[in-house]
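Much of the work behind modern protein science is quiet bookkeeping, done one molecule at a time. The protein below has been through that process, and both of its lines are reproduced in full.
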Amino acid sequence: MSDKILDVNPLDSNVLLKVVSLGKTFIQGGKKLTIFKNLDLKLEAGELVALVGPSGSGKSTLLQLIGLLDKPTSGHIYINGKPAHKISDGARTKIRRDYIGFVYQFHHLLPEFTALENVSMPQIIAGINKAEAEDKAAKILGNLGLKDRLSHRPGMLSGGEQQRVAIARALGNNPKLLFADEPTGNLDSGTASEVFEILLNQVRERGIGALVATHNLQLADQMDRVLELKAGKIIPY
């Protein structure tokens, strides 16, 4: 099946991510371990979709594949209408930088840098001058309720504040897609709800397509759709 045939239909201009017949197989101890096969998925602009499933079902693996951090064994990935499964490592890096934001369960902030520096650094790496990057970072952090925390290092912030900085960092380069892996999994229920509300508002305001892997079914029910990864397939929950 050619990429031309599978390419995103012009009528589906709102589709930011399209996955067709995706498969991933690992070799462990000389044996093949198939995580999923023939998996299909679509994600539209402004849509917040929950991805649920038991531990070990492949949620994190799927996010790594569609986030171009790993390569599929088979199948097709389209981002913003363009094929992204058969491109060079340099092209994959450019797409990640220009189109994709990531939020993880653990914030992965650089401990020796301030909140402002953690958010502005990816922008500077992308080629934005320091003053512009810091101004933009300050505005994003302010919108997330962290105006008074710009000069604080991660160790001086609460868990919820650290995760908000991580969300701000993911939004810094104006991604079209946001992939989150258990973004509230390390927080208490009250803080988790607060962080989720911020994430939801940012997705809506920016028209981002977001896929959120979570075990929190209460939060999942608040999203536009809930998909389950089960036996290597995506099914409506």
